[in-house]
Design goal:
Largest sheet of chain A: 6 strands, mixed
Oligomer: heterodimer
Number of domains of chain B: 1
Strand order of the largest sheet of chain A: 6-7-8-3-9-10
Domain ABC transporter (chain A): 6-237
Number of strands of chain B: 0
Keywords (chain A): ATP-binding, Nucleotide-binding, Transport
Order of helices and strands of chain A: EEEHEEHEHHHEHEHEEHEHEEHEH
Radius of gyration of chain B: 23 Å
Order of helices and strands of chain B: HHHHHHHHHHHHHH
InterPro entries (chain A): AAA+_ATPase, ABC_transporter-like_ATP-bd, P-loop_NTPase
Protein name (chain A): ABC-2 type transport system ATP-binding protein
Family (chain A): Belongs to the ABC transporter superfamily.
Number of strands of chain A: 14
Strand content of chain A: 25-35%
Number of helices of chain B: 14
Distance between the termini of chain A: 50 Å
Shape of chain A: elongated
Distance between the termini of chain B: 51 Å
Number of domains of chain A: 2
Helix content of chain B: over 70%
CATH class of the largest domain in chain A: Alpha Beta
Amino acid sequence: MDQHVIELEKLTKVYGDYTAVDQLSLMIRRGEIFGLLGPNGAGKSTTILMMMGLTEPTSGTVRVCGYDSTRNPLSVKQRVGYLPDDVGFYEELSGLENLLYTARLNKMSREMAVERATALLRRVGLEEASGKKAGTYSRGMRQRLGLADVLIKQPEVIILDEPTLGIDPEGVREFLQLIQELSRDEQITVLLSSHHLHQVQQICDRVGLFVGGRLLAVGTVSQLSQQLFAEEPFLIELHVQPGSTALYKKLLELPEVSRIERVDANRWRLSCTANIAPALTQLIVSSGEQLHSLTEKQYGLDEIYHRYFAGRDSDVRKMA
Amino acid sequence: MFEKWRNRNDAKVFHPFWVIVQKEVADHVHSWRFLILVGLLMLTCIGSLYTAMTTIRTAVPQDDSLNSFLFLKLFTVSDGTLPPFITFIGFLGPLLGIGMGFDAINAERNKGTLSRLISQPIYRDYVLNAKFTAALLVISVLLFGLGLLVMGLGLLAIGIPPSPEEFWRMIFFLLLSIVYIAFWLNLSILCSVRFKQAATSALSSIAVWIFFSVFFSLIIRLVANIAAPTEVATEETAVAYQQFIQNLSRLSPSQLFSDATTTMLTPSVRSLGPLTMEQIYGAIPSPLPLGQSLLLVWPQVTGLLAATLLCFALSYYLFMRQEIRSRS
């Protein structure tokens, strides 16, 4: 069986003279959680719209579950659930009625629809609110109702566009956990887009970094950090007292330390080519300073992101 | 037995198209807008029935009362204070159509439900077709209800039952009105596809309506004055001129509608174009039979249907390839 559920090949979308998506090629495997990461306006939503057949690509092909989304959108829509960002519901209908409508559009009988909708509402924790009008739902509740709405057609793939936008941190945690559970339990492939890096980091198997319509890097978070931070894969944060300039110079002279960033007077962040935490401890203590803490940090997506933009800025400068 | 029927109904899977239609009809019926429009039409019925009652005595012809189509006069006569039913429908029908359709697509778009709806396994045109069908169903039921109500009340009041021909003329009149309202409905759906804001869409449909009901005749008069033949013109030029002006005015759907309904409800109307003396000479002054009246209004009906189809095709064209983002 085909292991790639989503296949994008040289996908391009041009609006006027603005290229939203530029020659995008991407494969997503069955059962994985893939995070599409990028700042606002990077072309994430446009890519998703093309996957759903809601807009036509200028060139290139999209295949989802083996079907061409442009030519055969109906077969794709039968198998793929899509949660748009800022999803809307019919406000005068209750949460349950909204779900029933979707279920019946998917050719379910009324009985089966009621059964599934009730089960899903329980699963997303909206059991008590199911009879309330959707207009009274909070943002977080709407998002959870949206997830139930996406799941009611028993999809193979779910695509979530900025699913965590505008939900409070606790809500985000619960929501992402729910997505993760669903993906594991029901073997659903999940594609989610976000610009909140650390949230995506928690649950994604792989991420794709998407900026300016192009995919810069694809891989697991650790692969990405290895790619981008090949020379200095270790980040150590020190809290030293009093933090003299002499010590600063001494540290900088170490061959493994490539640069030091001062967070404030006493907190320094060292980018190192190897893990030299024991050596650092010794050096600091021997030079008569107090070491309050030493933390080894892994590069998160925030750093990856930041690094990319720093790199891009320098590119621009070079060109100028 | 009921149990059995219910079970079968439960297991029945509706086609997605009819699911949308059901929901739309329910939405219409539950909306305030619909109640307001129904109220307005009810008042129309009562008002026009009242004026017809007060004047119908004078409308009874002295010579032969059998062939006078007195019953149809209920819809066409008036004492001058309130317009008759037929004029009311011609005037309020567009409002009904526009009111039912001006936010068909853009409201869903603004609420963020359109992208959710479209990402279900349905063809895009289902949305458009179902919205049109639902609104048309509601309008048809409403108009037939009101029309038959006026007939019933009129029957009670004047005590003369309609002849079969009068009844059929009424039915055709109601069908015509539905076609006419369907045109305005489609126009407003077109606007709702084109314009993102419901207010813009409503305003532009109303602008078209006002243009055709107020300014169009003014423009025609202007053109008529400019194009008027000189005094010494021959008979042919005069007739050609008349026909030209009439054809111009028939570009307006409301003119088509009033031509058609007048013919349907006033059987004595023999022609909608200019008649020369020779044509009238020797004609028996009797009302036209139903079939002939229908033939007479056929071009008008075709014109209305064509205009409806044109609007439909345009909204189709605009909607099918439109990009649907979550809330824009």
